[in-house]
Amino acid sequence: xxxxxxxxxxxxxxxxxxxxxxxxxxxxxxxxxxxxxxxxxxxxxxxxxxxxxxxxxxxxxxxxxxxxxxxxxxxxxxxxxxxxxxxxxxxxxxxxxxxxxxxxxxxxxxxxxxxxxxxx
Length: 120
Prior knowledge:
The chain is α+β, with helices and mostly antiparallel strands. It is built from five helices and two strands. It has a single domain, classed as Beta Polymerase, domain 2. Helix 1 packs across helix 3.
């Protein structure tokens, strides 16, 4: 019953804030695409310069609406766009899988050395 109440609250919120919510989620989705593309480019560069591809797979995900709501409630935060943007740091995620540990560090260094990437 509690889950149904959470879903109803989130549904009401989305109906009232459809455009701002969609804009925010589009921002996260575009950021995921950009990060994924950066890793794919790095993989190609490694292939060119080192004759191997360190990345086995890249997986992306966006947190579901119900997970966003549950996380806000867990943090005792009101359901607002600013609260989502300013207090939830795991809405979008990228998992890069490599076969070798040293590849992880090489990719991380290459990724973080890009001028438009900032580690938080």
